[in-house]
Amino acid sequence: MVAAVGALAKTSVAKLKGQEAAPATQAPSAEALRAELAKAGKPVLLVSSKTLGQTGFLMVSDAKRDVLTWSTPDGATFSQRNGVLIQTRGLGADLMSAEVPSVGQLLQAGVPYQRVYYFLGADDQGTRRTYDCATSIVGTENIDVLGRNHSATHVTETCTRSVSGGKITNEFWVEGSMIRQSRQFVSSGIGFVDFARVID
């Protein structure tokens, strides 16, 4: 992972500091990369999308109560409520908004609830998709987030639509009351995006 994101991390940190990124020669160690990111003194989120072909470190651009908005250097944003994705902007096929479960609900295995996603279609008309969801607890796992070990509860969230038979499976790794790592659905155009909270 470090080799894959090392050069991008240097570029992201440099842009956040308003500097020109130095040419990448060798991927830094996880410890060195974490230390560099920590110098900003702000929370850091690692975001990766296979569809977009991009991986980078994001910092908080806006905070309102339990919602944090994380921004890329070029202005794309991901808004999360306590780590659960509720909105994106600047990706093209964006998630306009969402009604999502709390971390407590995610940890209540087998208890049903609904998720509601709102998208904007090609004709600029809003689309609402309602899913019936429930979670299952996979177990406690040790996960590595940029060279640091975390013990987290692995939760699988399965959501289905009775109308179309569509199905979404999100993955969460919950450490205490925090979602430390996750793979969450954005939209049919983007698919799933991976998130990892590197620095609190």
Could you give a quick summary of the protein structure above?
The chain is mainly beta and 200 residues long.
Explain how this protein is built.
The chain has a single domain (43-199), classed as Beta Barrel (YmcC-like fold), CATH 2.40.360.10. The protein contains 3 helices and 12 strands. Helix 1 runs parallel beside helix 2 (30-38). 14% of the residues lie in helices and 54% in strands. Mean pLDDT is 87; it is low at 1-19. By secondary structure, the chain is mainly beta. The longest helix has 15 residues, at 2-16. It has a 12-stranded antiparallel β-sheet.
List the helices and strands and how they pair.
Elements: H1 2-16, H2 30-38, E1 44-49, E2 54-64, E3 67-71, E4 77-81, E5 84-89, E6 95-99, H3 103-106, E7 113-120, E8 126-145, E9 148-160, E10 167-175, E11 178-187, E12 191-199
Antiparallel strand pairs: 1-2, 1-12, 2-3, 3-4, 4-5, 6-7, 7-8, 8-9, 9-10, 10-11, 11-12
Helix pairs in contact: 1-2
Number of helices, counting only DSSP H or I runs of 4 residues or more: 3
The overall number of domains is 1
Q: Looking at the structure, what is the overall shape?
A: globular
CATH superfamily assignment?
YmcC-like
Provide key terms for this protein.
mainly beta; disordered N terminus; 200 residues; 3 helices; 12 strands; twelve-stranded antiparallel sheet; YmcC-like fold; globular
